[in-house]
Signal peptidase I (Staphylococcus pseudintermedius), 80 residues
Amino acid sequence: MTFALISALVVLAVLVLFVVIPYEVKHQNMDTTLQPHDRLLVNKIAPRYNGIHHQDIVVYYAEGQYRVGRVIGEPGQSVE
């Protein structure tokens, strides 16, 4: 039982450090989809293998803070 608990904690620590990060929505820029104080687990690995595509929800760093938004254009497209 102790080994199983320690193993589970190690797996959880690895996931949090390398695979997912917790994020709390702070802004209302995605009000119809995400509300302020909603909590997300952000997958850090998937974009490296699958890329980022139109309509994906992403967490990005801008103006000194992390923000959440939806991708509205891809390389080569123009956004008006």
User: Anything to note?
Assistant: The chain is about 30% helix and 30% strand. Residues 22-80 form one domain. Residues 52 and 71 are 8 Å apart (CA to CA). The longest helix spans residues 2-19.
